[in-house]
Structure formats: structure tokens, C-alpha cells
Amino acid sequence: MNFSYTSNSGNLSIEIPEQDFIKLREIDKVIYTCNAGGYSPTDHFVEVKKLCEFYNYNFIIFTDEHIPSLDNENQIIFSYEAPNPRYAAKIFKILPHKFFINTKISLWIDSNVNIKESVFKKLDDFLISDFDIELFLHDKRKNIIDEAAECKRMGKDSASIIDEQISKYWDKFSNLEDLGLFQGRILLRRSTNKTKEFSDLWINEILLHSIRDQLSLPIAIRESQVKFKFYEPINLHKSFKVLLHNKYNMYSDAKDFKNFIITIKTKIIFKLVKLREKIF
Predict the structure, then answer these.
(1) N or C: which terminus of the chain has fewer CB atoms within 10 Å of its end residue's CB?
(2) How many helices (H) and strands (E) does the chain have?
(3) Are the C-beta atoms of residues 54 and 115 closer than 8 Å to each other?
(4) Interatomic CA distance for residues 19 and 90, integer angstroms
(5) Distances (CA, A) of 125 to 89, 115, 241, 258
């Protein structure tokens, strides 16, 4: 099964074996992720899988390499052509309705996120709610404007691409700074028409503009009018644990000493955030 898209960086194509695509159609509740290019550690997925089995959820990881520690039934091995491997993960992350055709509920976790047992109570509550999506507020910044500045400062994407995107949003929304900022690493969604509309709007913004999905997430929420609920970031550690990526800047164009310093700084900040969560 082939999925093809065009981004501002070039063409993107993802291929999934037909038998695996048929298997995905049978899933009704799923926790899923994607790990392309060995970007994140995989040992924690064994624990995720066990918890999912106990609570009658499916666990699926989309991966371009077989993971020996996981059963074949938990892995969808895909091939892809893309200007940047991150685009492959974005397709799976943002468009669950393209793969899990008959799923009632899906929980996306970034590949460096582990779950705790308490998350399943939240999933059960969400299923009987009238929200389309649930997510967490950003833990460091408050709006798209600040996030754009940080992305440029850290070299996360082309400054000109980000500037063009933000300029477009200013033209559409005079209150851009009030639209909020959300974490994209954890996304809980019910399979509704509104959720599908939200997801399609979101991927279109990413393909047109910056690959940094947090820049366009508030816009997709606003334009789709999806019914959503958000949680304060301090609550994230009650149900999830965020790990360090294996290769934090493996897809950055910058390969110099400045990039090394940015990586070290980011890891220090990450450790301090984790320490704060334990204290509070």
C-alpha cells in the first residue's frame, strides 16, 4: 500500500505491505508510534506492549528496521523515500485514520515516550467523553510566536520557511499569540469526522510549511473547530515518561561545533525538567 505526498522539501512516499495494512484495519483500540532511522531507544516498547496486552489495547510501532525485542505482530515495517526521515514519522503521527480504518480510539506517543499504567484509566474516560482529542500544553513556551523564535534559534528548520509561515498566520489571525501552544509528542484521538478534518488540515500545513508540527498544531485545532481538552504540562509525568532520543540532532543540516553545544544544552535542560517533575 503506497501513500504519496509532496512537501516544500520534495516528494514523500511510504510503502506498507498489503497484508500489514489489512491487519491494521482490524484494530479497534491502539497505542502507536514510529521510529525511523533508529532515532530513539526501543527497549521501553517491551513494557508498553505488555501493558497494552493486559488492558486489551493493541500496540503498533511503524519502523523501517525490524526490532528484535518485539513480536512481529507489533511491528509494521515500512519503506520510504523522503527528503527527511522525519516526514515519514509525521505521516503516521498525524494521519491515524489513513491506517487504522476502524479504530475507535488512538493514542500517539513519540518514540522516546514510555507509558505508565495510569494512562489506561484516562483512555477509558476519554472513550465515553464527547471530546475529539486530548493533549498537553507546551511545557516551556506559551504561543506559536515564541515557538517559532526558539525553532530558529535552535536551527530546527529554515528561518525563512518559519518566517513565511508565521507571516501567513498573522494575516489570518490577529490574536495569534492567544491560540496557545501544545505538545505534539502525545495525542489522544477518537475517530470522528472532526478529528479526520483536523488531521488533514494539520498535515497540509506541515507539508506546505515547517516540519515542526507544534507551529501548525494550534492552527489546525482552530480551523477545524475540533472539540479538544488540554492538560497542564506538570501532569504529563503522571502517565508518561519522556526519554532522550538516541540522536537528538541527526537530521539537522548543521554539523558544526555550534550544533554540538546546542545538543548538550538541550540534554541538560531535559534533565532539569525531569528533576523538577520528581520534586513536584
Answers:
(1) C
(2) 9, 12
(3) no
(4) 22
(5) 28, 17, 21, 46
Q: For the segment 32-74, what is each residue's pLDDT rounded down to a tens digit? A: 999 987 777 889 999 999 999 999 999 999 999 999 999 999 9
Report, as ranges of residue numbers, the positions in the chain whose pLDDT lies below 50: 248-260, 262, 270, 273-274, 276-278, 280
Distance separating alpha carbons of residues 156 and 260, to the nearest angstrom: 13
CB-count burial class (<10 Å; 0-12, 13-18, 19+) for 265? exposed
Q: How far apart are CA 272 and CA 125, in angstroms?
A: 32
Closest CA to 194 of 206, 186, 182, 202: 202
Q: DSSP class of residue 214?
A: H
**E strand intervals along the chain:** 2-7, 10-15, 29-35, 58-63, 75-77, 79-81, 105-109, 113-115, 133-136, 186-190, 228-231, 240-242
Per-residue CA distances from 240 to 90, 112, 237 (Å): 20, 10, 5
Instruction: Give the list of residues 6+ apart from residue 229 with CB closer than 8 angstroms, or none.
Output: 129, 131, 133, 134
In angstroms, the Cα distances linking 65 to 17, 62, 85, 167, 196 are: 14, 9, 13, 39, 29
Q: Check residue 261 and give its pLDDT.
A: 54
Q: What residue type is assigned to position 113 of the chain?
A: V
State the sign of the Cα–Cα–Cα–Cα dihedral 55, 70, 92, 159.
positive
